[in-house]
Amino acid sequence: MLKPHSLQQTFLMEIIHVSEECYQVAKAGGLGDVVGALPKYQNKLGHIAKVVMPMYRTKFLYSNEWDVVHKGGTNMGSWWFEYTVIHESTNKLGFDLYLVDIHGLLDREKIYGYDDDVERFTAFQIAVVDWIANWKHSPDVIHVHDHQAGLIPFMVKHCSAYRRLQNVPTVLTIHNGEYQGWMGWDKSRYIPDWDTWRWGLLDWKGNINSLAAGIRTAWKVTTVSRSYLEELRVTANGLESLFEYERGKCVGILNGIDTHVWDPEIDSYLQYRFGFEEVEEGKQLNKEALCEQFSLDINKPLIGFIGRLVGEKGADILPAAIGDAFYHIGRMMNFIILGSGFPEVEAQLNSLKSLAWGDYNVYIGYNEALSHALYAGCDFLLMPSRVEPCGLNQMYAMRYGTVPVVRNTGGLKDTVVDYEDPGGYGLKFNQASVGDLTQSIWRSVQLYRDKTRMKNVRKRMMQLDFSWEKSVTEYLNVYESLK
Questions:
Q1: At what angle do helices 30-44 and 468-480 cross, to 10 degrees?
Q2: Residue 271: is the preceding peptide bond cis (ω within 30°)?
Q3: Which of 236, 239, 406, 440 could form a disulfide with 232 if both were Cys (CB 3.0 to 4.6 A apart)?
Q4: Bridge partners of residue 71, in order along the sequence
Q5: Domain 279-466 belongs in CATH node 3.40.50.2000
Q6: Residue limits of CATH 3.40.50.2000 in the chain
Q7: Which tens digits make up the pLDDT trace of 175-211?
Q8: What is the pTM of this model?
Q9: In what order do the strands lie in the sheet with 334-339?
Q10: How far is it, in rounded angstroms, from Cα 310 to Cα 340?
C-alpha cells in the first residue's frame, strides 16, 4: 500500500486516529483541537488520515450528512452489543470522519462525566478494533489518543480475534498523563479473549491502567511537548518509573495550531478583523467592544483568563491573585475570566463582581465565540498552570497579538520566551502561587505602560510560526520509523 512520495521523500500512508474528542464535532479541551487539525494537515501532504470517534448526540451530528458504512456486533464480557459506524459524507473537516454508535452507551450529549465511562469507552475501543479487523486491508498506522483509546494497542497485539492486526504499528499520544483510565481487575472480562500470560501489561499497582497499557504496548509513544515528556519522568501521577523505563520509544512533539481557524484576519467570530499591519487598531476596536459588553475600563490593560477553572490550570489561585493585585498594585488593570470548573472557584470568582469598580467581570461557562473575542481584545492572557502538557491558548493569544503570562512548565516553557530575555515576547514565572502570579500581573502593567516596547512585543509574537507544518513532519517521521 505504501508508495514513494516524490516531494517529501516519504511514503504515503493510511493513518487512523482514534479519539474521544475532535473539533468541530465534540470538544472539551486541547485534545479536540489537535485531532481536528493534525489529520487535515497530514492529508495535505498526500496521506490518507481518518478520525474515528464516538457518536455523541451533538449539534454537529444533526447538522451534517452521513452514510452508514458498517454494522457489526461483538462482546464486552458477557454483554453482546451491536454497533454502527457512520461516515460524514462531505469531507467537511478536511479528512474522513467516522462516528461509532453503541445504543445505551455513546448516544449522549456530553463527552465525559458519566458513572459508566469505563464501559462507554471500553466498548467504543472494542467496536473500533472489531471494525478495522473486518476491513479487507489493514491501515498503515493506528494512532490513538489518551487513555480512552489506550487499550487499543494491547487489543491489537494480544486479543485472539484481532490477530490479523498484530503487525499494524500503533502510536499513542498522551495529551494529559494525569488521567489514566483505571479500572478494577474484575473488569478485565470486558476485554475480548486475550492472552492472560500478558496480564502484566495491563496491571499497574493492582489495577488495570489503560494509559500504562498503552505506553507498554504501543510501538511508539508521543507527548505534546518535549518539556512535558521530561516532566513525566518526574511527576506523572504514579507512572514516573514507567516513563523512565520506556523512554527509548517516547518522543516529544509540540502541538501546532490550525492557522486557518485561528487567524484574526479572517476569524468569523470577531467583530473587527485585523492583520499584522493593523494590529494596534484592530486590537483596540475589539478591546472597546469587550469593555462595553462587560462594563470594563477601556483605558486600563485588559488581562484575561480562558480555560477550565480547575487546580491543574492554576485557576484556584486566580481569586486571591486578582484581589492581591487590586490591593497591592491598585485598580490599574481590568480582568475578564471565561471558564467553568470547580464550583468553589466559580463561586469565588463570581463573588469578586460585587467588589468591581468597572475593572472586573467573569463569564462562567464555555463560549467559543467569546474565547475568540478575548484573544483578539485582551492585552494579556494568564496561564498559571500547574500542569500544561502543551498548551494551545498561549499560541492562539500570540497569533492575536495578546501577550501570554505563563508559568514556566510543559509546553508553556517550550513556546514562550520572557520579554526581558533576548528575543523575548511573553512573561514567565516559576511557581503556581498567588505571589508569583501577582508579581507577573504587576510586570504586565509595567509593560503595557511602555507603549513602544509593547508594540514591539506584539509584532514579534505575531510573526512566530506555530502552524502544524513542522509538527506534522515530526509525526510522519515517527510513523516511518516503524516500517
A1: 80
A2: no
A3: 236
A4: 84
A5: yes
A6: 4-256+469-480, 279-466
A7: 999 999 999 999 999 999 999 999 999 999 999 999 9
A8: 0.90
A9: 360-364, 334-339, 302-306, 380-383, 403-407, 427-429
A10: 8
